[in-house]
Amino acid sequence: MAENTPPGGAVDPDPGLARLNALTTESLRTELAQCLDIDRWVEEVAAGAPFPDREALLSHADAHARGITGEEVAGALARHPRIGEKAEGKGTEANWSRGEQSAFASGTDDAGAKVQRIFAFAQKEYEDRFGQIYLVCASGRGPRELLADLVERLYNDRGTELAVVGDELRKIAGLRLVKLLESV
């Protein structure tokens, strides 16, 4: 019988979810940490397994990511490269990061290169102001859109910015969970 074929021979409609549900708790935690490296979140999401369907998993994960604290933001940022820098390593998380930022690097004409240089300057301003890297859910967003977001966020106070980064981490975690489910 095939790996994702339940008794009776019917094919499991969501092999990615079946794979996650079949993992040991420790293996599930390892997989989830690639999506969002916050111990509390990993533990809370893993505690909800097994999940009856994809929507239940995504909803459960999203609900627990909505409470990301400022302290958790600092720890999670350590695993994210700056926008415009290639993620190091060959693992799943590094590959995801490179893919999520691919639209940023796509502007190879003179105008795109200028926007990227201005972005690098604004990113330095952001780091000086907030003492952390600028993090955004960059998936599918080009340099001009990211620059506009970055400049707008420079006007935030520290508390507001930590909340914004927490929400961006939540969005990234949701996208990565879907990738986890599709990596069968």
Automatic annotation (TrEMBL):
Its EC number is 4.1.1.97. GO terms for molecular function: 2-oxo-4-hydroxy-4-carboxy-5-ureidoimidazoline decarboxylase activity. Keywords: Decarboxylase, Lyase, Purine metabolism. Pfam families: OHCU_decarbox (PF09349). Residues 21-177 form the Oxo-4-hydroxy-4-carboxy-5-ureidoimidazoline decarboxylase domain. GO terms for biological process: purine nucleobase metabolic process; urate catabolic process. Pathway: Purine metabolism; urate degradation; (S)-allantoin from urate: step 3/3. It comes from the Bacteria. InterPro entries: OHCU_decarboxylase, OHCU_decarboxylase_sf. It catalyses: 5-hydroxy-2-oxo-4-ureido-2,5-dihydro-1H-imidazole-5-carboxylate + H(+) = (S)-allantoin + CO2. PANTHER family: 2-OXO-4-HYDROXY-4-CARBOXY-5-UREIDOIMIDAZOLINE DECARBOXYLASE-RELATED (PTHR43466:SF1). This is 2-oxo-4-hydroxy-4-carboxy-5-ureidoimidazoline decarboxylase. It comes from Nocardiopsis kunsanensis.
